[in-house]
Write a structure and sequence with these properties.
- By secondary structure, the protein is an alpha/beta fold.
- It has 13 helices and 13 strands.
- Helix 6 packs across helix 8, helix 7 packs parallel to helix 8 and helix 11 packs parallel to helix 12.
- The N terminus is likely disordered.
């Protein structure tokens, strides 16, 4: 039993040693970790012919620029002539030769009529014929074709899913004879000069028709142990697919025990529909076990790009495989020395001020025409029935009128539209104008202030006047004419002071049917428009309805 001080020393030595190992490991670590899956060749089966080659860059763009390193196609299994000499390999060979890190994977059937549902008895006979060398020349011809096209390192998936019940090249009818037949094909193709083929043994996941380990032909004729794994039974969950007999875990363990690389030539969705959990788990499994390559079968119902019925799985596929775009690398901030810039004063050159000549604009005075206030005259309607005196030229107006006050130099007044009301009595400039009796309302003339006239003399003998409507009854268009009512003779107007003589318009004859009243526009406007007057003509005939006799 060791002493305590020795135990302490051993503990110290162990601690120091562990620290040194950790330091060395840290120093040996790479500066930048590679992104996940970057060293795993990935691809998809997109189509057998040239269209499959053309779709590879489109898939890459869909995956955000993910590099597609695997080109995968199948030889037709209908006739031997198309197996040994297919007509579409040139396009695939050209794609493979473009870059040295690419893989060309070719599924090769072991029999013609490979999908014609040949019965087990016939399959057993064909297996024996192949093991005896009956079909060697077909595979020799194919090997020469691949070497001549420049793809001698093609990965050949020979007799895929041999543990199932679908293809004519299945193993179950004669497992031992089938393994002999496999050996004969591989040795025949390897005998062709220049070949570097890798042969992939790829059964279905699960037991299927026969346990796939019973069909394994031997380590000397197998380079890769693959497995096709779709989302279907046996197994409902991914964990069951891993742990079941002949499942994913047994596949990995078997390849490791035989010193072989693994692959997943076919995988994808199937019986369980759009299942993103399966896609995520399968990709994580692939990342964990690092196969030589993997290719998803990308057509419905298995695919995620060309098949649009699996949108959730497609999203999970892209999220797992699309390369992460690195963020911007921060640039170290180096302080820039501040160099003061000398300030050089700019000389100020005064700009000469050139006076602009001012040309006076002639001012044209605008004549100001004041608008006089024209009072609205009260209509004076003489009452018929009593003869009215006929005024002489020296007699002022006998009808009552509104009081007027003299205005020094009245302004010009525009001639208004005549209104059917009685005309006010307007004295003439020198001699008063006689106002005849109006039977109807007469449109008033604007009231023009007139100069004072001398006192009137006694009125002459009265002259009978036709009857007119009473002042109390409004007379207008459409109103009935009332009976004449005698009224007293109006008193003569008050005497107006004398005024400066003005030109007098021609007087109408006594009892004339036309009345004219002068209009004074003022001295300034009268020079432009001349002397004006307003005349009203009244029909006194017997047929007018105003003749009293």
């Amino acid at each position: 039993m060791p002493r305590p001080h020795r135990r302490l020393a051993s503990t110290c030595i162990g601690t120091v040693t562990a620290g040194l190992l950790a330091t060395g490991a840290a120093l040996a670590a790479p500066e930048k970790e590679q992104p996940k899956g970057s060293d795993i060749a990935m691809g998809a089966f997109l189509d057998s012919g040239q269209s499959g080659v053309a779709r590879i860059p489109q898939l890459s763009r869909w995956l955000g620029g993910k590099e597609i390193r695997v080109g995968h196609t199948y030889l037709p299994g209908d006739r031997w002539a198309r197996i040994e000499n297919p007509d579409f390999l040139e396009a695939w060979a050209q794609w493979r030769r473009a870059r040295p890190d690419r893989l060309f994977v070719l599924n090769v059937p072991m029999q013609e009529h490979n999908e014609d549902h040949v019965p087990d008895r016939e399959v057993a006979r064909l297996i024996r014929a192949g093991a005896e060398g009956e079909f060697d020349h077909h595979f020799e011809q194919l090997a020469h074709k691949l070497v001549d096209l420049g793809v001698p390192d093609t990965v050949i998936v020979l007799g895929w899913e041999m543990n199932g019940a679908t293809y004519t090249h299945r193993c179950a009818p004669d497992p031992e004879g089938w393994k002999e037949y496999w050996n004969r094909i591989v040795n025949t193709m390897r005998s062709v000069p220049g070949q570097q083929f890798k042969f992939d043994f790829a059964p279905n996941r699960g037991s299927d028709a026969v346990g796939w380990t019973k069909c394994y032909p031997g380590d000397d004729v197998v380079d890769v142990v693959g497995m096709d794994s779709y989302d279907q039974a046996p197994g409902k969950t991914f964990d069951e697919m891993v742990s079941q007999p002949y499942g994913l875990q047994q596949h990995v363990d078997f390849a490791k025990a035989h010193g072989k690389e693994i692959s997943y030539p076919e995988w994808g969705l199937f019986r369980h529909g759009d299942n993103p959990v399966y896609v995520q788990r399968m990709l994580k499994w692939i990342e964990q076990h690092k196969p030589l390559y993997h290719t998803i079968t990308d057509y419905c119902p298995h695919g995620v790009w060309q098949c649009k019925q699996n949108p959730r799985s497609a999203k999970a596929f892209r999220a797992a495989l699309a390369p992460e775009r690195p963020g911007p690398v921060p640039t170290p901030v180096v302080p820039t020395p501040v160099v003061p810039t000398p300030v050089i004063p700019t000389p100020v050159v005064p700009t000469p001020v050139i006076p602009t000549p001012v040309v006076p604009t002639p001012s044209i005075p605008t004549p100001s025409i004041p608008t006089p206030e024209v009072p609205v005259p009260s209509p004076v309607v003489p009452t018929p029935g009593i003869p009215l005196p006929v005024p002489s030229p020296e007699t002022p107006d006998t009808g009552p009128g509104p009081g007027t006050s003299p205005v020094p130099e009245p302004a010009p007044v525009p001639v208004p539209e005549p209104v059917p009301v009685p005309s006010p009595a307007v004295p003439s400039p020198e001699v008063p104008v006689p106002v005849p009796v109006s039977p109807d309302p007469v449109r008033p003339s604007p009231q023009v202030p007139a100069p004072e006239s001398p006192s009137p003399e006694p009125a002459p003998e009265p002259v009978p006047s036709p009857a007119v409507p009473s002042p109390q009854t409004p007379v207008g268009p459409g109103s009935p004419s009332p009976d004449p009512v005698p009224v007293p003779v109006p008193e003569p107007s008050p005497v107006l002071p004398p005024a400066v003589p003005k030109p007098q318009p021609t007087e109408p004859p006594v009892n004339s049917t036309e009345w004219c009243v002068p209009v004074n526009f003022g001295e300034w406007l009268s020079k432009l428009v001349g002397k004006q007057s307003i005349c009203v003509k009244i029909d006194w005939g017997r047929d007018s309805g105003f003749w009293p006799w």
